[in-house]
Design brief:
By secondary structure, this protein is α+β, with helices and mostly antiparallel strands. It is built from 4 helices and 7 strands; from the N terminus they run αααββαβββββ.
Length: 150
């Protein structure tokens, strides 16, 4: 009987949303993979990080709705033109009970990608949904774009 209960509970345990340090490590890894695809202009891989109904709020360009539209804008405006790096020590991860997590941080952009010094910096908030064992970004807020802080 105990084996039957364990078999029944195992899928539930495997689907459990990580918390604490595990959540931070998970979102840090997702951030690294997301922006590796961004920097390499791997649009197919980049698209996999976003929910279909993604809402992307940008302080300079406004609202973009839909993951396909965001990836299209990446192709037109970013690919081969900009490289992104996370500001060390800026990343935060906080659980959102029953939904996923919020990720907060600061990143720098290098334009052109080969530039030694960043051209700008911004803050970001990513809302991640954890569903069926997968993480997807449902909301992005990119704001406070400015010159790099020294």
């Amino acid at each position: 009987m105990l084996n039957l209960i364990l078999v029944w509970l195992l899928p539930t345990c495997l689907q459990a949303q990580p918390t604490g340090d595990e959540l931070f490590r998970t979102l840090a890894a997702l951030d690294a993979a997301l922006f590796d695809s961004f920097n390499k202009c791997d649009l197919e891989k980049n698209r996999t990080f976003f929910a279909d109904d993604l809402e992307f709020y940008h302080d300079q360009s406004g609202l973009t709705v839909g993951a396909d539209k965001v990836v299209q804008q990446l192709k037109q405006n970013i690919c081969g033109k900009v490289r992104r790096e996370l500001v060390a020590g800026s990343l935060e991860a906080h659980a959102l009970k029953g939904y996923g997590a919020v990720q907060i941080g600061r990143h720098r952009f290098y334009n052109p990608p080969s530039a030694a010094e960043p051209g700008g910096e911004a803050k970001f908030i990513h809302i991640w949904r954890y569903l069926d064992g997968k993480w997807k970004i449902t909301r992005v807020i990119s704001y406070d774009h400015e010159a790099v802080r020294k």
